[in-house]
Amino acid sequence: MATTTIGHWIDGKVHEPTPGSDGGDIRHGDVFNPATGEVQAKVAFATPAVVDQAVESAARAAQTWRSVSLARRTKILFAFRQLVEKHQHELARLLTLEHGKVTPDALGEVNRGLEVIEFACGIADLAKGEYSENVSTEVDSYSIRQPLGVVAGITPFNFPAMVPMWMFPIAIACGNTFVLKPSERDPSCANFCAQLLTDAGLPPGVFNVVHGDKVAVDRLLEHPKVAAISFVGSTPIARYIYETGTRHGKRVQALGGAKNHMIVLPDADMELAADAAVSAGYGSAGERCMAISVLVAVGNAADKLLPLIRERIAKLKVGDGLEAGAEMGPLITKTHRDKVAGYVDRGVAEGAELLVDGRTLVVVGRPSGFFLGPTLFDHVKPEMTIYQDEIFGPVLSVARAATYDEAIALVNNNPYANGVALFTNDGGAARKFQHEVEVGMVGINVPIPVPMAYYSFGGWKASLFGDHHIYGRDGVHFYTRTKAITSRWPDPRHRGVDLGFPQNR
């Protein structure tokens, strides 16, 4: 059976490279079905010449798109929003087939992306400047926000629909044109969105997709016509993107990795905390930058909480994401599955107590799938590898703290600072937590504190490189630059030449 080839999307249509036509040999990557382990498609890898074609298309479109009225841009975005909602089940199915997450989780991802599209539909209000009359006698001053031009997004495998939607709706609404380089592991959602944007009336070249690996990324980072780069991924790559992009004169927001903690105080509702720990630790097989990977139990909280967590883990249904009732799917590739299993080996070797071992999981009917079951460690110490590294899999580590202050210090001493949660029934403890914790997104009795689209998403410290968080008003500010204008219109009273420095009067 022939394998489908996924091409790029350039200038409003699918771009299928032919040998020698794009400045180099055609390279492809395998796209797996993680539940079966089978290769279901090939994806074309862009050469620098292909990236140049996409950027040139975007640059041509930028000359006219920046002048398209706010009303017209908004109308297209509303149409796109309606199409995404109409086709959400198709988009979610593509997502599950290539990523592996279960259908309800995939639908949830699409709907969180829809919220950012809806936010971008309000661009007419969001992009307004300011005006001050008579800053000096008969002199007015005002500001306007203008697009940057061509901007690019480099997005991860774990949210192939939602994370690009954090970027391109706001960028396009602000008058920019966009080049997306999605993960080569699950590329189809990007092309599906490109087709929906075209169906919504977006002109050719305003949104382009190039698939590939580091070759494509590096060309985007150095291309002189790309004004800004948005990135979500691991911290080492985020640092590379930020340093390389800024060295080439670009505006960069690069969101990095995470090691999210959840502190549970002894007074917390333990049933609620157990539900939250299992949901946030094992949802999407732990392949979330907002997953809870460390549970910090204060005092005797662990003794009350761990039996409840183990009880819930035993009832989880792990299987093919398309299977009815499945709650957790496979990991994205066999290589990643084996890497996560290696962390479990390392945790045991370094002395952590393994309470639930996901390495032994067997999914009936899916012997070649990339599955690893929910894994639970107790008595994890800060010096252990499983505490220090971002595992990005279904591994939940329980660390114990004698006091609340010790627990907060544990969080604040961690180099990552993406998300954090506290479970307690004490309002004073909660207020102390939100004031003292050094993390970008904070949940109080909420395990995954992802802000709504009208706020912004982003961490602190090694979880963010750059000055702007993503989406919300930070997104509008990132994708525009402010121009301040001071004006005075001639009147009959000419004041003559004055060589002195201008002063407000």
Give an account of the 3D structure.
There is one protein chain. The termini are far apart. With 505 residues, the protein is an alpha/beta fold. It has a 7-stranded mixed beta sheet with strand order 15-16-17-14-13-19-20, with helices on both faces. A 6-stranded mixed beta sheet has the order 10-9-8-11-12-22, sandwiched between helices. The protein has a 3-stranded mixed beta sheet with strand order 1-5-4, covered by helices on one side. 37% of the residues lie in helices and 23% in strands. It is globular. It has helices at 48-65, 70-86, 88-99, 103-120, 123-126, 162-173, 188-199, 214-222, 235-247, 270-282, 301-315, 334-349, 385-388, 404-412, 427-436, 472-478; strands at residues 4-6, 8-10, 13-15, 27-33, 38-45, 131-136, 139-147, 150-154, 177-181, 207-209, 226-232, 251-255, 260-264, 292-298, 353-356, 375-378, 395-401, 416-417, 419-423, 441-444, 460-461, 464-465, 480-487. It is built from 16 helices and 23 strands. It folds into 2 domains: 4-256 and 463-484, Aldehyde Dehydrogenase, Chain A, domain 1, CATH 3.40.605.10; 260-444, Aldehyde Dehydrogenase, Chain A, domain 2 (3-Layer(aba) Sandwich).
Count up the helices. 16
Strand content: 15-25%
Query: Which stretches are low in confidence, meaning pLDDT under 50 for 5 or more residues running?
Result: none
CATH superfamily annotation of the largest domain? Aldehyde Dehydrogenase, Chain A, domain 1
Provide the number of structural domains: 2
- Quick one: how many beta strands? 23
The N- and C-terminal alpha carbons lie at a distance of: 80 Å
Helix proportion range: 25-40%
CATH class of the largest domain: Alpha Beta
Please give the oligomerization state of what you see.
Answer: single chain
User: Which CATH architecture of the largest domain would you pick?
Assistant: 3-Layer(aba) Sandwich
Principal-axis shape? globular
Strand arrangement within the widest β-sheet reads: 15-16-17-14-13-19-20
Query: What structural class should be given to the helix and strand makeup?
Result: alpha/beta
Biggest sheet character = 7 strands, mixed
Write the CATH fold name of the largest domain: Aldehyde Dehydrogenase, Chain A, domain 1
